[in-house]
UniProtKB/TrEMBL annotation:
Domain of life: Bacteria
Protein name per Swiss-Prot or TrEMBL: ArsC family protein
Pfam families linked to this entry: ArsC (PF03960)
Family: Belongs to the ArsC family.
Species assigned in the record: Desulfosporosinus nitroreducens
SUPFAM superfamilies documented for this protein: Thioredoxin-like (SSF52833)
Family matches, as InterPro entries: Arsenate_reductase-like (IPR006660), Thioredoxin-like_sf (IPR036249)
Length: 57
């Protein structure tokens, strides 16, 4: 769920490359803009992000 293309990650999150899940979760809790969006729950299924070519289909 960590968006490595986000400005927040590029500025603050580089040290997370070799971190464990707890460190990443803590980073995301403090920096929610680094979460891949959108997060959508559909039919008990979590859909994370989108593919640009599918966005307007």
């Amino acid at each position: 769920m960590l968006n490595k293309r986000s400005k927040t990650y590029k500025e603050l999150g580089k040290e997370l490359e070799d971190s464990n899940e707890l460190a990443v979760a803590n980073f995301l809790a403090v920096n929610p803009k680094a979460i891949i969006r959108p997060l959508v729950v559909r039919n008990n299924e979590l859909v994370i992000g989108f593919k640009a070519e599918e966005k307007y289909s």
